[in-house]
Amino acid sequence: MTLIEVANLKKSFGTNEVLKKISFSMNKNEVVAMIGPSGSGKSTLLRSLINLEQIDGGSISIGNEYLVKDGVYVKPDGIKKVTGRMGMVFQHFNLFPHLTVKQNLEMAPKLLNLQSAQEIENHAKDLLDKVGLTEKAESYPSSLSGGQKQRVAIARALMLNPDILLFDEPTSALDPELTGEVLKVMKDLAEESMTMIVVTHEMGFAREVANRVVFMDGGEIVESNSPEEFFSNPQHDRTKLFLKKNLK
Amino acid sequence: MVEYWNKIIWPMLEGAQMTVLLFFIAIIVSIPLGFLLTLAVKSSFKPLSWLAHGYITIMRGTPLLLQLLLICFGLPMLPIVGEYLVFDRFVAACIGFVLNYAAYFAEIFRGGLLAIDKGQYEAAQVLGLSKWQTTTRVILPQMFRVALPAVANESITLIKDTALLYAVAVPELLHFAQTAVNREFTIVPYFIAGVIYLIMTLILTIIFKQLERRYKFE
Q: Where is the ABC transporter domain (chain A) (predicted)?
């Protein structure tokens, strides 16, 4: 079942064309790893899906609902409804520094009146347990390590029960020894059939966890394949060159 | 000793009441007003932004004393409208302080907003928060935290600036000190005034240090 459908997406920053008529679709329960050199447009594509970037042309739909149709955005409440089906995890965590871990998790569902206070609290407890940070519930983000912060950020995104989770280079800001704990949480999510798009430089993660690897370069999707095929039998020269540089 | 107390210190403490009253009025009104100015400066409606910018430039770029003199003595001299602009001296002084300090606070808050990472807005957006919720729950608490040391600094300056009331003949602390110096022919009242100012600023310093500790988020 197709969950995300992107057609002819165009996006420029000034005269710099970052996404050149991109078309892309993915199914429910799929885990897609997006890789490519920096400046290839992969983060911009991800951010466009959740309306953090305004696109200049093309269509994006989630489920059967449009976010943008032929370059025209739907009405604000439609945008909210579509983007509300997605959660996002950022490279720099973007936790709220003035709130405790628990408050970070509970703020959005409370403000959006999604559940009762008791349900929200239980949900937060469960998710903190899931990411292994129960004992940090009352801590402020400033006292956490990068890996812990990112795990809190994942839990916070899960609080809204998204159908899709978007990860924008979730381990790029972490010390190498801390990436493992975050990747572990993501792997667990993949095993629970969460639909995920992960923009990453972690080739190991792409190979082991993803169902599909999408390689972007110069604002285009160059190659899209299963991890086995992608890593052992790359089709394009640009892919081969990239892999040669990044797989030692 | 009792006589000294009655003739010098007591009037000075009464004068200090005026100082404290002006301080509270100025702080309580100019902080929200300053915040509104910050919002006006950041407004996407350009004329409003320019107006706020111009206001801040003028109020920060000219002496507070000049502004006070203008409000107390200048406005009533205007043709036609002047007679409607005669205020009680203390009220006039309050208006002057509020208008002036609002401009400073506006700049302090603007600095606080600049310190907030764009990622905070993005996180709030993807979590489905409305603009209002983002401002009140995410941005403002962080902005005030960043602005706190500068607000403390400005508040201490405000305490000392109340001495400018002397120039528009509102009887405050310094006024009574000067009267006592002239009458008793001793400079001791100056020192007493200094100590009273110092006590007031020390109390403020302690309060703000407590606030900073409380809002450390650690």
A: 4-243
